[in-house]
Each structure stands twice: as structure tokens, then as C-alpha cells.
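Bit of a strange request maybe. I'm writing a small parser for C-alpha cell strings and I need a real example to test against, not something I typed by hand. Could someone generate the C-alpha cells for this chain?
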Amino acid sequence: MSNVYNLGYKNNKRGELIMGIDDLSKFLDDKEQKAKATDVAWGKRKSEWLTAVDNLYQMIEAWLKPLKDQGKVQTKHEKITLREEGIGAYEIKNMKLNFSGEIITFEPLGANILGARGRIDIKGNKKSFYILLTGKDSDGTSPEDYVWKLAQTPKAPLGSRKTYLIFDENLFTDTIKAILS
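Reply from user aminoacidic:
Good idea to test on real output. This should exercise your parser:
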């Protein structure tokens, strides 16, 4: 028994499988076209992700404006480098909130998240949470349909399902209070 697999190649006169140069050329052209399409898709996804993160930070800045005006919080952004499969290495900003020396960091984890379009961890000294960029109804396909949702871990036995709540101003303030308490 032979270890020759039928890969759709032509047979020569001796019954051996061969691939002609024309077949190889067509194969390489097809592969290049698929790679270009994939690069465009990853580039678009990265662009949407960076825009969504910037928009989130702008929303948070607006929510915090009264506290900033009173000197109760300072915000700072730092560039970090992420490396993701398909997207490669890229720079993105994190956001640090300083509440009288207590720092809360919004740290992007990436756009390649199973079941979501991105994730940001919200880290304090003792507690942390995370938000996911996902469709309003978990099936949104365009950037206009994406919203940030906070993962809520139930106080239930291991294996219980998490719930996700839309990350609005009220949930933001509740999250900050929970981290600082």
C-alpha cells in the first residue's frame, strides 16, 4: 500500500501524481489573493478596535469631567504594545485614573477575544473587572452595533454563567466605587 494521497493532482503516464507549473502558479495566485483579503480584514478589525477604545476613553473623560474640575481625579494615557495573531504588533493606549493616589487602570487586552470584538481589563489594587466590546444583542456585525459590556460574575457555584451588562455611566461609577472600596 502506498503513502500517496490524492490531492487532486494530475496523473502522469506512469500513474504518479504530478502538479504542473500552471497549476502551481494558479495555486500561488489564489493563496496570495486570500492573504490580501485576510490582511484587509485584520486591518479593518484593528482600526475598529482602536477607534472603539478611543471612543470609550472619551466617554470616560466626559463622565469624569466634574470630578476632574474639582481635583478629585486625574487621568493619564500611556502607549503600550500588543501583539495579536493575525493583527501583529501595534500600539494602543491604556488609561489610568488617579483617585488621590489610588490608581485604576483600563488596560486593553486585544481584539482577538472569543465571542467579542475586544476586551479591556479594569484593574485596581485589590479588585479587577473586565469589559468586552460586543454587539448590543451579542450578534452585532457593524461597528455601530458594538457596545461595551461589563462581565458580572455571579456569587454562585463554580461553572455558573456570567452575565454582561451594558457599560454606561452608572455602571462605570458603580465599578469605580467597587474597586476603590
